[in-house]
Amino acid sequence: MAHGIRTDSHTSYLNDSRDWRDTATRYALLPLRIFLGITFIYAGVDKLTNSAFMHASGSGSIGDLMRSVRDSSAIPALVDMALKNPVGFGYAIAFGELAVGIGTLIGLLSRLAAFGGALISLSLWLTVSWASTPYYYGNDLAYLMAWLPLVLAGAPVLSLDAAVRVRRRQRSGEYR
């Protein structure tokens, strides 16, 4: 009797060529894609529908937020650039979050969308949440790290990118 040693060489749970571990590996990034996609869509919609946010000044405005983090940010010049047109910057961030979220959720240009999400998270970490002490209290760094696997792997399953890839292979004759 062997303890802890797997004696079967292949156990088929879903089809003849993959065991459950292979399937779990294929779908491992799907929960992350769903979470980041929904979160960034929500963040973009929240900014666009918040009546106070898209103003140059006033309580809860993008302008006041930028002014409050300017001296504590890692790159004050980036904040100064945003302060030249805070409302335009607010719309750019909101529409960027929407594009990133939708692209990630449906898996369209998924690596590009993830790269955009990483850039947004990096810019927010270096400006808005840079002064968080200890550093792990600022959520933007965690979001930045969460985007990196999607930048590297894309959306290999349940995505428009995967559907396009399959269609191209079918047209080239790889699947007959």
Question: What does this protein structure show overall?
Answer:
- The protein has 176 residues and is mainly α.
- The protein is elongated.
- The longest helix is centred in the middle third of the chain and has 21 residues, at 86-106.
- It has helices spanning 20-26, 30-49, 62-69, 76-83, 86-106, 110-127, 139-153, 160-172.
- It is built from 8 helices and no strands.
Shape: elongated
Approximately how much beta-strand content do the residues carry?
A: under 5%
The SSE string, one letter per element, is HHHHHHHH
- Poorly predicted runs: 8-14
User: What proportion of the residues is helical, as a percent range?
Assistant: 55-70%
By secondary-structure content and strand pairing, the structural class works out as mainly alpha
Mean pLDDT: 89
User: What separation lies between the terminal Cα atoms?
Assistant: 45 Å
Number of helices: 8
The tally of beta strands, per DSSP, is 0
| Main sheet attributes: strand count, strand direction, barrel closure | none
Radius of gyration: 21 Å
